[in-house]
Amino acid sequence: ICSGCGPGYRSPLDAMKGPREEIVYLPCIYRNTGIQKPDYLATVDVDPKSPTYCQVIHRLPMPNLRDELHHSGWNTCSSCFGDTSKKRNRLILPSLISSRVYVVDVGTNPRAPEIHKTVEPVDLYWKCGLANPHTSHCLGSGQIMISCLGDPTGNGKGGFILLDGETFEVVGNWEHPGEAAPFGYDFWYQPRHNVMISTEWGAPKALADGFNPVLCGKHFENQSLHVWDWTTHRKLQTIDLGEEGAIPLEVRFLHDPSATEGYVGCALQGTVFRFYRTEKGDWAAEKVIGVPSKKVEGWMLPEMSGLITDILISLDDRFLYFSNWLHGDIRQYDITDRRKPKMVGQVFLGGSIVSDGPVKVLQDPENQPQPPPRVIKGRRVYGGPQMLQLSLDGRRLYVTTSLFSSWDKQFYPDMVKEGSLMMQIDVNTISGGLALNENFLVDFGKEPDGPVLAHEVRYPGGDCTSDIWL
């Protein structure tokens, strides 16, 4: 990083030239595993030249049980690049179930982080009327913004909490009183176009103990994107994606800050929608990718969706990646033609349709054979590919298998028993293509306190899902 600049990188293309990742942080979850231990933040060595390569080199346990750590963010990121007084030295770690927010000092000793501060749930409840914090983004103003799934009683409420970037005290709501969306989940902002777009998952009390796909029939109501005015914090528009857009989860604008478009992965029916600003200045969305459901027997329903649970875009805005957590594959699409993504890579890692499992595929519109089980270094992959993180240069894709502890327990009980895995995919960035790195494996089944569920991967210097450029 150049001297005399703030944290992060001047542009996404500058970030692609950043140093190779040497360590990563991942939250590790014990809720719903039967092990009465607190969740922790793991530091993992991913430097092939290191003697501790592929090992957890530090564990920072939280002071409480059953938090369900989930996604993390930063106190400052590339949106503060112009401010030399800022440092990227605190990791913001919201707890999806307990509604605590941990602020972790990763600056003093990046390889052995420590807790700097805990924001207690009562602050979120009383000051904001919100609970179940999910996505954390730093803002150019120096504040931190966290989206929430619900209110303190477990009903859906898609509002946003602001934290002071220095004291980490709760400042209050970002949205105006009475203007929260009915449901919340993820968000991304693009200041050049004065816009923020947020997504929705569901009411916390309906999600906390598992997933009932039978209830997700024709009248699924969580199928909208919400468009906000970035300056006035007013909600401008709700885009109904229809049945095919049910459960829109991760939202990603293109990284180029001048772009007026991006993509959202919709879990329930395995679709990706492109959203964009229209000529008249409002926003619209169109379906650009659909993963067809497979007709199956030996499963809870007669049809199995891919269940797209994570998507990301390479820093040069050339490739889009997503994971089908149930089918068990990761796909790479060339998005040079933004409206017509072209699949150029695919790799299967576990999933629910492995050839030696209880599920038989009766009909597959894509005519793919049932994949064999995947074994890496003698360890079978239980669960399916879920959270993704791409190296800055776009050549390595890290993947973990845990989605959310209660859903893990329901769909992949063997993963809960054996622990989740972190794997690495080699990416062909010239013509496309994905291949498993057979020499890389982090086995979270071998942790000192027993098998654990590892979730989202974060690099100390920032990455393509935590950095927003102004």
TrEMBL record:
**Pathway given in the UniProt record:** Organosulfur degradation
GO BP terms: namely: protein transport
Q: Name one Pfam family in it.
A: SBP56
Q: What is its main location?
A: nucleus
InterPro entries the UniProt entry points to: Se-bd (IPR008826), WD40/YVTN_repeat-like_dom_sf (IPR015943)
What membrane topology is given?
Answer: Peripheral membrane protein
Tell me the protein family, please: Belongs to the selenium-binding protein family.
The alphabetical list of record keywords is: Acetylation, Cytoplasm, Membrane, Nucleus, Oxidoreductase, Protein transport, Selenium, Transport
Q: Does the keyword Oxidoreductase apply?
A: yes
Extent of the signal sequence: none
Root EC class = oxidoreductase
State the species of origin: Mastacembelus armatus (zig-zag eel)
Alphabetically, the GO molecular function entries are: methanethiol oxidase activity; selenium binding
| Protein EC | 1.8.3.4
Please spell out the taxonomic lineage of the organism that makes this protein.
Eukaryota, Metazoa, Chordata, Craniata, Vertebrata
Compartment(s): Nucleus; Cytoplasm, Cytosol; Membrane
Matches recorded under PANTHER family: METHANETHIOL OXIDASE
User: What protein name applies here?
Assistant: Methanethiol oxidase
What cellular component GO annotations does this protein have?
Answer: cytosol; membrane; nucleus
Reactions catalysed, semicolon-separated, are:
methanethiol + O2 + H2O = hydrogen sulfide + formaldehyde + H2O2 + H(+)
The task this protein performs is described as: Catalyzes the oxidation of methanethiol, an organosulfur compound known to be produced in substantial amounts by gut bacteria. Selenium-binding protein which may be involved in the sensing of reactive xenobiotics in the cytoplasm. May be involved in intra-Golgi protein transport.
